[in-house]
Amino acid sequence: MKNKPELFVYITIFLVLVLIIVFAGSCFVQRINGVSNVLLSVLTAGYVFLTYWILKSTRQSILEQNRPYVIANLPYENQQVWLSVKNIGNRPALDVKVTFTPSLEVLGGKSEMWAPLLTQAFLAPNDEKRNPAGLAYDIIKLDPTNKVFQVEVTYFDSELSSYSTKPYKINLSNYVFNKLVINTETKKG
């Protein structure tokens, strides 16, 4: 046996069909026909708009998945801090510019080694450029305000669409004895 809502729908459809057949030539049916034509036009326009919106969203999603994503980092390995610029996206990045505030010169390393990495004409997908930026010993001696870097990266894709990261921070004061120390606070309840 069918459930009650389904049975109600079938009975309603049957009754509407009977009423249309009985009142076939009446003014009432002609009004319903006119209203249904207008309603069908509105629904079709809504369907066209919705289809356009879905296609636009799909295209935007595909572009986001296939764009370059460039990040700059200062990883710590073998008693050194390295400058790393990497494209983790699926397309090449062009005219990459990385800005550190304060300048990486405060790390004490030779700028000839890391300065060329701050501007890259071409960075292929999954390509990483790395060079030493400073020694751990020099970083320990730094003023705490010089251990926090604000980083911004700007670049273009092959279609010359421009991208830039929101400024993010790298805190070197967390690098202690070859390990990254994560500071957590616990609240007493």
Question: What are the SSEs and their pairings?
Answer:
Layout (H helix, E strand, L loop, with lengths): L3 H19 L4 H39 L4 E4 L2 E2 L2 E8 L5 E9 L9 H4 L4 E5 L4 E8 H5 L7 E9 L5 E3 L3 E4 L3 E2 L2 E2 L9
Antiparallel strand pairs: 1-3, 2-3, 3-6, 4-5, 4-7, 7-8, 7-9, 10-11
CATH fold-type name of the largest domain: Immunoglobulin-like
Strand content: 25-35%
The CATH architecture of the largest domain would be Sandwich
Distance between the termini: 58 Å
Going by helix content, strand content and strand pairing, the class is alpha+beta
- Uncertain residue segments: 181-189
Based on Cα principal axes, name the global outline: rod-shaped
The overall pLDDT, averaged over residues, is 84
Largest sheet: 5 strands, antiparallel
State the domain count.
2
Number of extended strands: 11
**Gyration radius, to the nearest Å?**
32 Å
> Percent range for helical residues?
25-40%
What is the top-level CATH class of the largest domain? Answer: Mainly Beta
Alpha plus pi helix count = 4
Q: Would you write up a description of this structure?
A:
It is a single chain. The chain is of the alpha+beta class and 189 residues long. The chain folds into 2 domains: 4-65, no CATH class; 70-180, Sandwich (Immunoglobulin-like), CATH 2.60.40. The protein is 35% helix and 30% strand. It is built from 4 helices and 11 strands. The chain has helices spanning 4-22, 27-65, 111-114, 136-140; strands at residues 70-73, 76-77, 80-87, 93-101, 119-123, 128-135, 148-156, 162-164, 168-171, 175-176, 179-180. Strands 4, 5, 7, 8 and 9 form a 5-stranded antiparallel sheet that branches. Strand 10 (175-176) and strand 11 form a beta hairpin. The longest helix has 39 residues, at 27-65. The radius of gyration is 32 Å and the shape is rod-shaped.
